[in-house]
Design goal:
Blueprint: H1 3-25, H2 32-54, H3 56-59, E1 75-78, E2 81-84
Antiparallel strand pairs: 1-2
Helix pairs in contact: 1-2
Length: 98
């Protein structure tokens, strides 16, 4: 299965689990705490599944060689005018410690 399909499936299963937990399990007094735990798990499944389906998880692994603070230009605009980027020192490249 592709990642997007797994993500959509996880979001759908989480949605069904949430609805079942809300309307079937929660009205039973002895299972109230279990229902809340199940709802939490369902919400996490929905969030992670949606992130995987949209591809947000792939962008976390990709490193950028340019500085995110100045967008690789080496300078930033401030109230005093244009100054050297304090993060990359004007090189426009991301530091090695990332």
């Amino acid at each position: 299965m592709e990642r997007e399909t797994k993500g959509i499936l996880s979001a759908i299963v989480g949605s069904v689990l949430f609805v079942l937990s809300l309307f079937v399990v929660m009205p039973i007094e002895s299972l109230y705490l279990h229902s809340l735990t199940l709802m939490f798990v369902a919400v996490v499944m929905i969030g992670i599944g949606t992130a995987i389906a949209k591809g947000f998880d792939r962008s976390l692994d990709i490193r950028s060689s340019s500085c995110y603070y100045c967008d690789g230009k080496g300078t930033i605009e401030t109230d005093n005018g244009i100054e050297t980027c304090p993060r990359c020192g004007g090189t426009g490249e991301s530091p090695d410690d990332e």
